[in-house]
Structures are given as structure tokens and as C-alpha cells.
């Protein structure tokens, strides 16, 4: 842009000098008011600049992994990302490029058994500062369990790849001097530092303004105006995404985003999750989204279902919101009855629900304890099978446990509770007394799942002595 000519002093059209009172009448000096505003980049320019710099940073970090870390680094991160599963990786997919790589480079913390790290003579208190220690450890058989964990053995938690990269740049872990002539910009450093601190969470699209999107965090009370032209084009107001937002010098961008968008219907179930998490805050601490990052990512996968593994048709791809379930829809009904004190008579009346005879069921009697549905004594356990669903197989409608004085039924779907109540009333009349009926919705189930995962996570941390801050 050409610089405007300066008008002669005394002209009514002269440009105010830096220390002159600002002509807008604010009372401030011109350099601290309108001149400063004129020199600031536009929000769009600032957003594009930050987005471009983040893209270049990702390339540098991928090169660091390729050149300096073990070839097993990518595989180990992929296993952790998928909770121990190992689906085929498509390096050109949006899941890998826009979701997995940012998570791996900026948030993934490799966990290596102490015994593996100690094989190389590394002090386990210092090993997590060394990329060489991680490289050697990942070349070993980590003895992972089926779920991708390393069992009960204490582990060494390594820092994210980006933090190792900065340690090399800063000369803290560069014994060969390979990085002594390399630098990172202030913006790159800020992006790394902010991304390592920013949790992954669920956002709802509230408003679109130009190339900015207003996102509401659904797990904590926070809102962000995010520069993201792609989201403006692809999202509808009300839709929900899972990802990470990073803010540098007042500009926010989406640094990582899961490929599937969710329906507004999941907002209510997420409120159940938030309530459960709030109940656990004394155990988890205020930074619970970091401590529960793995579980929250698993929650996203639970809500997305098996959509990623299926072969959706084009309509499903264009409308991914179709995969979310109605949070108010009943999915599980639990009925508890008091029965007369005779197991054989109870089975004579209700054996037909299993498709077997009472005599056949009596051959399957097993002991129950208090931990199983709150009932004890000997009894039978069988699936409740409904009418043929058209492929020669009956519909599995639930599970039923019967003892001499109790019946507990876990029933799937809508209307099944009413069906079984009517059948029990028809067969047993007043001899069977309904003691408790509990109907759980999609939202309830998600909340309970989150609570269960929180409790398991806390128990594992206490047992391993690692209840210190969060893992990603």
C-alpha cells in the first residue's frame, strides 16, 4: 500500500502527529488511539496468519518425528489414540490429518513401563526429558495388554513431541548440535505452549460471522470466536464438534477437530456427563478435562458409534448429524419384582420367556451374590427373546434373572418394560409384586458411562501412584 503524502504544517487537512491529541476526540494521544488501531492487522488477516503458521509448525513437527524419533512412535501413538485398537490408518483422511496428527504432536504423552526405561541405565526421574530414552524404549516390546495399557507396572510419562522439539531447539536435549542453528518464532512457541494446555472438548456452533464461528464449550462455561473458514462453510448452527481450540494473542483457531459432526440432540446427554464430572471434582481436580482426556475422547467415539467403521452412503456423509441418538429416548428399563418363595413354580409360570421349558431352566441353576443385581441365592439367568425379526432369529429384548423370591429384568428399547409387566401380571397375577422400575435414557446411559470411566481412571491413578495432573 502506498504511503499517503504528508500535508504541510498548518493545513486544515494535515495529518495529526504521533503525540498530537487524537482527532476522534477520545482525549488520548493519536499514537495510542486511532493510529494504533490503523496499524493493527484485521481480524481476518490475523486469523489467516495464525492458521498458516500453525500449518507450517505441523510440518516441522512431523519432520522432527520422522528424523529424530523411533519409527515406532507413530504406531504407539496410533494405538493410544484408538484406545488399544489398531484400525488401518489412512494418512490422507481427515481423521489422521486434522485429528490424529495434531493430537499426537501436541498432546500425546507416551507412557513406558519403568522396567523398559531402566534397561538403558536411564534415571526414570530424568528419562522423560530425553528423546533418546523414548526412542530406545519404543524399540522394545512394551508388553501391552489387550486394551493398549501396560498393566499394573509403574510407568514413565514422556512429554509431548512438541515439547521435545522445543528442548532440542533450546539446546536442552541436542547433544549432537543438530538444532543449534534452528529457531522457532514467538508465535510457534506460543502455539505449542497453548496447545499443550488446551483441553479437547465438545463445542456447539452458536453463530457464524464472516470467517469466524462462535463456539460454546459444552463441558465448561466458555465461548470462543474462532477463525475457521472451513467450519463456516461446513457447519450449521447448533451442530456439535469435538476438538481443540487454541488462542494466541487474542486470535483463536481450531487446531484439531474430529471428522464427524454430531447432532444438537447430544447437548442434553453431555449435560449429564458434565454433572457427573462435577460430582467427581474432589477426586479429579479443577483440571479434570486434562485428567480425563482419554475418557472424553472415548465418549466422542461412543457417541459417534461405529459410524467410522461402516460404509455410509453419500447421504450419511453429507448429514453426519443423523448418527446421534435422541437423548430422551428410553434405552434400558430395569424391573425388580418380589416373587413367591418357590423357584420351580416361578419358572413354570415364566419359562416361556426364554424359549425353554422350566425343566430345562432348572438344569442351569447357578448361585447369585449380592453383587449381581442386588439378589442372592440360587437362580437362573436367561435372555428374553421376542418374536422372529424376519431372518429366522428372535429379537433379543433383554436379560432376566429369577430366584425363589426375586425377578430382575434388564430390558432393551422402548415399550419392552410394559410388555414384560403385562406378561408377568398375566402369568402370576398378584403373586408377583413390582418393587422398582427404573427407565434410563440415552443421556442417562452416557452419564453413567462417564461416571464409570472416571471412577476407573481415579482408581488406576491411585494404585499406580500417578494421581498428579492430567494425561492426554
Written description of the protein model:
By secondary structure, this protein is of the alpha+beta class. The chain is 39% helix and 20% strand. It has helices spanning 34-39, 43-68, 72-81, 94-106, 114-118, 131-138, 161-169, 186-197, 229-234, 267-279, 281-284, 288-291, 293-304, 314-318, 343-350, 358-362, 416-428, 442-464, and strands at 111-113, 155-157, 201-209, 212-217, 222-227, 240-248, 251-257, 330-338, 366-368, 377-388, 394-403, 406-412, 433-441. A 6-stranded antiparallel β-sheet has the order 9-10-11-12-8-13. Strands 3-4-5-7-6 form a 5-stranded mixed beta barrel, surrounded by 4 helices. Strands 1-2 form a two-stranded antiparallel ribbon. A hairpin with a 2-residue loop joins β3 and β4 (212-217). α10 (267-279) runs parallel beside α18 (442-464). Residues 1-12, 124-128, 142-150, 306-325, 388-392 and 466-472 have low confidence and may be disordered.
List strands and helices in order, with pairings.
Layout: H1 34-39, H2 43-68, H3 72-81, H4 94-106, E1 111-113, H5 114-118, H6 131-138, E2 155-157, H7 161-169, H8 186-197, E3 201-209, E4 212-217, E5 222-227, H9 229-234, E6 240-248, E7 251-257, H10 267-279, H11 281-284, H12 288-291, H13 293-304, H14 314-318, E8 330-338, H15 343-350, H16 358-362, E9 366-368, E10 377-388, E11 394-403, E12 406-412, H17 416-428, E13 433-441, H18 442-464
Parallel strand pairs: 5-7
Antiparallel strand pairs: 1-2, 3-4, 3-6, 4-5, 6-7, 8-12, 8-13, 9-10, 10-11, 11-12
Helix pairs in contact: 10-18
